[in-house]
Amino acid sequence: MLKNYLILAFRNLVKDKFYSLINILGLTIGVTCGMLLLLYVTDELSYDRHHEKSAQIYRIVSYITEPDKINNWVSTQPPLVKTLKQDYPFVESYVRFFGNGRVMFRQGEKRFYEEDIYATDSTVFDVFTHKFIEGDPKIALDEPGSIVLTQKVAARFFGKNSALGQVLRTDDTTSYKVTGVITDVPKNSHFTFNALMSLNSDQRNADGWGGFYINSYLLLKKNADIKQLEAGFPQLYEKYMSSLFKRMGIHITYRLQPLTSIHLHSKLDGETNGDIGYVYTFSAVAFFMLLIASINYMNLATAQSAKRAKEVGLRKVMGSLKGALIAQFLTESVLITMISLVSSLILVAALLSFFNTVSGKEIGYIQLISPQFLLIGFSIVVFTGLVSGSYPAFYLSAFEPAEVLKGSFKARGNSFFRKALVVAQFSISLVMLICTWIVYQQLNYMRDKDMGYDRDQVLTIDYQGNQSKDKYNALRKLLVDNPNIQSAASASSPVSNIGGRVIFTVESSTGMKEMAFKPTVIDHDYVKTMGMKVVQGRDFSEDFPADTSNGVLINEAAVKRMNWKEPIGKKIMLGTVPPDGKNPPPTAQVVGVIKDFHQQSLYNPIEPLIMIYRRANPVIHVKIKTQNTAGTLAFIGQKWSEIYPDRLFEYRFLDQDFESAYHADELRGKIFTSFSALTILIACLGLFGLATFTTEQRVKEIGVRKVLGGSVSSVVLLLSKDFTRLVLFSFPIAIPIAWYSMHRWLESFPYKTGIQPWVFIAACILTLVICWLTVIYQSLKAALANPVKSLRSE
């Protein structure tokens, strides 16, 4: 029986080649896009699940409540997890990470800067799963001065030779012995690293509760009560921290984040992760693309019902049961879907490399034959085949044979259902078009917004260590003497990545008050080099030598926070006053107020900032002119080598750092745009097929109208107005949905563009134009045809 169904299905496909091609093409595009999007979604959901104990691992995050502000930090104090391990029996182990950032390693004559270097506890490989190529995970980081490298870093220094037991040096006095090599950290991890140093050898492994600079993770025993642990955090604060923070009006508590939820659900201060919203969005796009392709099939199948009415009537007269007819039509639908699936698998394999480039993923070909992906493919066949074939199957099998064979058959209800499907298609397409437009508006807004400083033609050089003041001054003099270099300055961090907060004692209307501010250390050329504006007071100057000890700059956000009407001269103690009052920190005065600038990306609000004056700092900023950029860079590199012969010259442009902050959203925007365009293409394919069928059904009517004097334009208008009306019906459906979706999406941005009415108008006009271009070919073809041919049989 199944064989007969397949033979008949294949014959019907060959018989109507045009409509079969439209259906297969639409379904192939829909299934291909659906599979690629589901690969993306699957990858997003897989973050951190490669760790064997991922279900038991939790990150601790800090919630710091100040009198006028709440901070949510990913960092904690060093002794926190050690204390939890001691006080709670269901804490099995813990691990802490301290970021060392960018470090220059040397081995013999080889010198390389490596990013993402962390100091960590020796328990790291008990908690997290990493495959060792060399070394023993149980003892790899037990000893001070030990380091574990990733495979990529080990190959860079040692090639194919064994790295175990080799020594890497960071400067003339610090060395690390390689005690292990692991495979590179999978990209689907919420944080990655290139090397891990023993935290035992790090002096920052202190027991004080005042500093938040360690990322902490707990490994809990199976079936541990998370709520019980979190309920104990207030007591923890009272026991260990209240004496230090309560007098400042600061309260601290903690939350536990499941490891596998961090990438998609964590939005803490200064953190850049994925977004569960995009997972939902891309899943919905995949679903709607399959749905639109299915609607095409239903539309064309029901539109052609008159052609197949006699077939159904004859088969019923010959004894065919309704169930057998339904099975036949569903077989045709599944066959078309199977052909589309095979075509889609070939396209997915061919496009995977390009898709990885566009999406920033590293999805391997092996995933295309994984049970999970094959199950997805099977599910698509079942869903698309049954959904797209269900209505035509039940509709066509319900024809009355007597009515059909007498020639009095009319497809009741068919037209209304087809129109509803077309409205649904274009409503979905219009929603995606509007959303794509607004997404790009927001991305362009963030890219073009004034950051409060000039990032063009500014390069940053990370010195990595304490500079000699004399050497830096010598380098700076050599640089600014070059006519192609406008200025040079130094700071403690790049202008676009000022992180962390420190407690300062600040003058307020009620006396000196301890509050947290972001600090940065700069020299007297920094404000000028970065193109910042002094809105009150003055900049740091070498004409005021006392600035190095008792002068600070603040930003407008700090003035607003302190509610200062006259900020110049206000006192700021560079630290906290000890409880015993002895050895207080030095006191400085505000000498100037800087116009607010963004210390991080536009995903983070501007925070109160204190700028401290020091003459030589680890990060050098150089503002160069646009003329002869290559020659200027070569000059800077030459002078760098003369002044710092033991340091590599590596630089990056500030605008590149800026662009990288929005790279993930740029990629997501490209994905969304591409699939939105393909969604509209699928809808247009269906509309084209439907327009073709409609003109075929009305060919004699068109012939009569032309014989009676009807013009080409009137015929084109006649055939186009029905489709125009359907597209117009989609506008009031799509616009509220798109507005609500984008309004919710924009709420997550501290700085956002507005939703402009012209976007909706332009999107509606574009949709109408696309509709007209789709149907006008068939309309013109019918209008220009010779009426004699269409009326010859009358």
UniProtKB/TrEMBL annotation:
<protein>
    <submittedName>
        <fullName>Putative ABC transport system permease protein</fullName>
    </submittedName>
</protein>
<feature type="transmembrane region" description="Helical">
    <location>
        <begin position="726"/>
        <end position="746"/>
    </location>
</feature>
<feature type="domain" description="MacB-like periplasmic core">
    <location>
        <begin position="20"/>
        <end position="232"/>
    </location>
</feature>
<dbReference type="InterPro" id="IPR003838">
    <property type="entry name" value="ABC3_permease_C"/>
</dbReference>
<keyword id="KW-0812">Transmembrane</keyword>
<keyword id="KW-1133">Transmembrane helix</keyword>
<feature type="transmembrane region" description="Helical">
    <location>
        <begin position="373"/>
        <end position="396"/>
    </location>
</feature>
<feature type="transmembrane region" description="Helical">
    <location>
        <begin position="20"/>
        <end position="41"/>
    </location>
</feature>
<feature type="transmembrane region" description="Helical">
    <location>
        <begin position="758"/>
        <end position="777"/>
    </location>
</feature>
<dbReference type="InterPro" id="IPR050250">
    <property type="entry name" value="Macrolide_Exporter_MacB"/>
</dbReference>
<keyword id="KW-1003">Cell membrane</keyword>
<dbReference type="GO" id="GO:0005886">
    <property type="term" value="C:plasma membrane"/>
</dbReference>
<feature type="domain" description="ABC3 transporter permease C-terminal">
    <location>
        <begin position="284"/>
        <end position="400"/>
    </location>
</feature>
<keyword id="KW-0472">Membrane</keyword>
<dbReference type="InterPro" id="IPR025857">
    <property type="entry name" value="MacB_PCD"/>
</dbReference>
<feature type="transmembrane region" description="Helical">
    <location>
        <begin position="325"/>
        <end position="352"/>
    </location>
</feature>
<dbReference type="GO" id="GO:0022857">
    <property type="term" value="F:transmembrane transporter activity"/>
</dbReference>
<feature type="transmembrane region" description="Helical">
    <location>
        <begin position="277"/>
        <end position="298"/>
    </location>
</feature>
<feature type="transmembrane region" description="Helical">
    <location>
        <begin position="416"/>
        <end position="440"/>
    </location>
</feature>
<feature type="transmembrane region" description="Helical">
    <location>
        <begin position="671"/>
        <end position="690"/>
    </location>
</feature>
<feature type="domain" description="ABC3 transporter permease C-terminal">
    <location>
        <begin position="674"/>
        <end position="785"/>
    </location>
</feature>
<feature type="domain" description="MacB-like periplasmic core">
    <location>
        <begin position="435"/>
        <end position="603"/>
    </location>
</feature>
<dbReference type="Pfam" id="PF02687">
    <property type="entry name" value="FtsX"/>
</dbReference>
<dbReference type="Pfam" id="PF12704">
    <property type="entry name" value="MacB_PCD"/>
</dbReference>
